[in-house]
Description:
Elements: H1 2-25, E1 29-31, E2 38-42, H2 43-46, E3 47-53, E4 66-70, E5 74-79, E6 84-89, E7 94-99, E8 113-117, E9 122-127, E10 134-139, E11 144-149, E12 156-160, E13 165-170, E14 184-188, E15 194-197, E16 209-215, E17 221-227, E18 233-236, E19 239-242, E20 249-253, E21 259-266, E22 276-283, E23 287-294, H3 297-303, E24 308-314, E25 320-326, E26 346-351, H4 353-361, H5 367-373, E27 383-389
Parallel strand pairs: 1-21, 2-25
Antiparallel strand pairs: 3-27, 4-5, 5-6, 6-7, 8-9, 9-10, 10-11, 12-13, 13-14, 14-15, 16-17, 18-19, 19-20, 20-21, 22-23, 23-24, 24-25, 26-27
Amino acid sequence: MKNLLSLVGSILCLIICFGCHSNRTELPVLDVLKQYSEKKIILQDIAEIEYIPLESSDDVLLTFSNIKYLSDKYIIAINGSRGEVFTFSRDGKIVCHFNRKGRGPQEYISIYSIAFDERAEEFYISDASSLEPRIQVYTKEGDYLRSLKFTESMRLQIYNSDDQTLFAYDESGLLDDTYRKKPYLYISKKDGEILSELNINLPVRHSSTKNMEVTAPDGRIGIQPFALKLWNNQSDGDNLIIADMSADTIYQLTPKKKLIPLITRTPSVNDSDPRIVLTPQLKTDKFIVLNKTTLDFEMAISKWTYPIEVLICDFTTHQINQPDFINSDFASESVEFAETTLPQNRGLYAIDAVTLIVANERNLLTGKLKEIVSTLKEEDNPVLVYVKFM
C-alpha cells in the first residue's frame, strides 16, 4: 500500500511539473484588434543610459542619416540619399567615411541595405536599384573589394551572419506575385552563392509597397509603387528577430540556425482588411517592443500618415501594453528606438542638436544630457541615447 501511494504521488508530481512546464512554454498572443492600456516606463528604472555626441565636420553631417550599427568598437551611420557611409569610434569620434555612389562596376546606385563585418572590417551594400542585382563589398575606408552578383532578380535586406556567410531576406517579386515562397537565405560572402534557405515557407506574401493610381499635375493618371517604409526583421546581438509581415508568429533566429518562437498574433495577418502587420522595434531578454501598422495606403497618400501603434509584451507575464518610454533627463521628448544592429539587451535612439538646444533653453533637460548640450551647436550631429537594459 505504501509503495502504491508513493507511485501515485510520483505520477501526480510529474503531471504537476509537466503542467508548469507547459504554461512556461506557451506563447504570448497579441490581439491586433484589441485596444491595450498605456503603461509609463521610466527608462532609468530598468536601464542605464549613456549619451554619445557624434563628432561633426563640414563633410560629416548626419541630419538625414540613419544609425545602422553600434558595438563596443564602432558606430556606423549612413546618409542613404547621398550614398554616404560613416564610421565613428565608440565614443563618437570620426574614423573614416566614403561615398561610392555611381553607375560604375565598383560603385552602387543606392544603399538599399547595409551589413558590417566587424572582424574583417568589411561593408556589404545591397544595391537594389542596379539593373544587375548585386551586393558590393568594400573595406572600412571604402576601397572596392568584390561584387556578389546574382543570376536572378534579388532585392535583399542583408545581415552579417558569420565569417563566411550573409543572411538575407529577398523582397523581389512582391508586387507582381513572382516572389520566393522561402525568402530567407544564407549567402556566401565570397561569391554570392545561395548556400541554403531558412525553413520558413510563406505561400502568400504581403508587402508594405503597393501599386497605386496617381494623378499627375497635367491630369494624366498613371500607376506607380507607393511604399510604407517597414522592415520585417531586426538584429538582436548575434541573433535575428524574424517578424515577417506575411506570418503570424515572430521568431528568434540563433547563430546555430535554430528558430525559437517568441510571440504569435490573432487574428491571422491574412484575415485583416486593411491589413495589420507587426514589425520589431526592440527586443530584450524580458520583453519585446513591436510596431503595429495598418497598411492603409489611401490614407497614407491623402494625409501623409497611416495608423501605427507601439506595443510591448512582457515574456514572463505575457502582459501587453502601449508603452510610454520616458527618459527622465528629457521627460517631454517621445522615445522611439531605432532599428539598429546592437549588442543584446540594448536600445538606441538619437536626438538632433537643435531639439536639445531649444529644450535646454526651456529648462526641459536635466542630468548628463544637460551637461552635454552646453557644448553643442545647432549644426552639430545628433546625440545618441544608448540604453543598456538590466
